[in-house]
Amino acid sequence: MSLSSLVGPVAKMKTSLVDDLAMYSMPIGDELREINALIGSTVRMEFRQQINCVHCGRLTKKSFNQGYCYTCFQRLAQCDSCIVSPEKCHYFEGTCREPEWGESHCLIDHIVYLANSSGVKVGITRGTQVPTRWIDQGAVAALPIFRVSNRLQSGLVETLFKAHVADKTSWQAMLKGAPSEVDLAARRDELSALCEPGIAELQERYGIQAIQPITDIPVQHIRFPVETYPLKVKSFNLDKDPLVEGTLMGIKGQYLIFDTGVINIRKYAGYHIELSSESL
Predict the structure, then answer these.
(1) What is the dihedral of CA 92, 124, 159, 65, to 10 degrees?
(2) What confidence tens digit (pLDDT) does each residue in 125-139 have?
(3) pTM for this prediction
(4) Which among 274, 256, 257 has a CA at the least distance from the CA of 265?
């Protein structure tokens, strides 16, 4: 089937690693199509002026929090502010929007990690999201440094580390090329020493088994399918210009890199698009 026939709501690209190379597939409607093979081809994406909530499916004029209608954005635990700031998790205060969702997503093992995307950063993710989270951030290397028993604790550990290292990726810098190589194991040891008093305090509060350092897992290196990085990063906005077209030069993070600009596919989850290409 030709790619020109792919029309429907788009979703965050699915990823995997094959010999350290990030492989991408794009969900559009009921289809899941591999995208790596399109690099070097002319690709056209057109927004069909329809947005459906990624949770409830209802039509919405505006997308909130990368794909939700306003009602779901206000109601769902996965859209609460504690998702961005895990140290503010309020499940144990009895005020979680959806306690059952919190139990299955937040009250499970989390990993605190260091990653090199636009430079070294600290981050957290559910244990089940390794290495997906690192690929989504465009990290060329990542290293787990702590395993903790829930999301709140991961946020508290992350807070200790982000007093000394960044906790965000500069997406513009990430899309301009590979960052300078960093010895993440050495950086882990340096930062762990700085954070040792705070870690000891958290272990005393929650128990040593709840917050365990990781020292036996090697650095995960990640290669991205990019032929050419842009000198200037121009971001497409489907709400202002519904047509994206150009030669696909690569994929990194959740971004398609064209010779005419870049687009964050995750931002437009729920948007109905038509995707076509000169070749498959």
Answers:
(1) -80
(2) 999 999 999 999 999
(3) 0.94
(4) 256
